[in-house]
Amino acid sequence: MKIILLILFVFSLLILFKVFVDNSIWEKVLLLNLFSVKFILHILVYAIIVKLYYLIDIAFIYSILGFVSIVWITRFVGKRGKYD
Which long-range contacts (CB under 8 A, 24 or more apart) does 65-70 make? Predict the structure, then answer.
């Protein structure tokens, strides 16, 4: 299980590197969403390893917040920064 955490960590670092290298704002939003999913996987795998099952609830809440924030960011970018 710890090898899975290490693999997820390496992929997360690669995703963060790509966020700073890419030019397109839509690719950055997509990569931030992917990083959010990887972070949730980190929490879930860690919760299973150490048998702290309340962390699964925290991961669930984080996933809801991540979804709402990505929807808000895409609406904001899609309207070119105009608030309604």
Answer: 66/33, 66/36, 66/37, 66/40, 70/29, 70/32, 70/33, 70/36
Cα 63 to Cα 32: distance, rounded to the nearest angstrom: 13
Residues 6+ apart with CB under 8 A from 77: 25, 26, 29
Provide the domain count of the chain.
1
Q: Give 2-29 pLDDT, tens digit per residue.
A: 788 888 889 888 888 888 887 888 888 8
| Residue ranges making up the domain that contains 11 | 2-78
In a domain, 60, yes or no: yes
Is the pTM higher than 0.90? no
Please indicate, yes or no, if residue 83 is contained in any of the structural domains.
no
